[in-house]
Amino acid sequence: MKLSSSVFNQPAEEEGEKKTLNSELWHACAGPLVSLPPVGSRVVYFPQGHSEQVAASTNREADAHIPNYPNLPPQLICQLHNVTMHADAETDEVYAQMTLQPLSPQEQKDLYLLPAELGAPSKQPTNYFCKTLTASDTSTHGGFSVPRRAAEKVFPPLDYSQQPPAQELIARDLHDNEWKFRHIFRG
């Protein structure tokens, strides 16, 4: 789970609505080298690479059950119509699903890719830290340590008039699960 100052106390979406992942949290999990092209931009799609990725993610050999399209060009220039960010429920691995439409041969002759269409910089948050939680971190007797600099940078300020200084933190993970923590300053 990732904690970010921007995900504290955000209201849950109404039931029945499709849940949208927090973009800032998704980018934090994806890492600083990931950038998503904006909707409406032109992108290059590599069918062979996609087939190999599908084969690898489904534990199949590349030639085993993947259809072969000999008349398909090695790359297609496409218009990006939609980008949806996802997170695997079991592993928290993040990925994006994109809806692409190949451009006609005439549209391909009339275009050139602009630098702006090559992807925007990552929207990774600047104030965050990562912590993998274990069962003891969520038990009533357990606790976990957060580096002081990370706590001061990411968490809301503590009320030092209390003894010991403490506060309750509410965070949401990638799947919109709410987690409650008691933040206590020791030391």
TrEMBL record:
<dbReference type="InterPro" id="IPR015300">
    <property type="entry name" value="DNA-bd_pseudobarrel_sf"/>
</dbReference>
<dbReference type="Pfam" id="PF02362">
    <property type="entry name" value="B3"/>
</dbReference>
<keyword id="KW-0238">DNA-binding</keyword>
<keyword id="KW-0539">Nucleus</keyword>
<dbReference type="InterPro" id="IPR003340">
    <property type="entry name" value="B3_DNA-bd"/>
</dbReference>
<keyword id="KW-0805">Transcription regulation</keyword>
<protein>
    <submittedName>
        <fullName>ADP-ribosylation factor, Arf Arf6</fullName>
    </submittedName>
</protein>
<dbReference type="InterPro" id="IPR044835">
    <property type="entry name" value="ARF_plant"/>
</dbReference>
<feature type="domain" description="TF-B3">
    <location>
        <begin position="129"/>
        <end position="186"/>
    </location>
</feature>
<keyword id="KW-0804">Transcription</keyword>
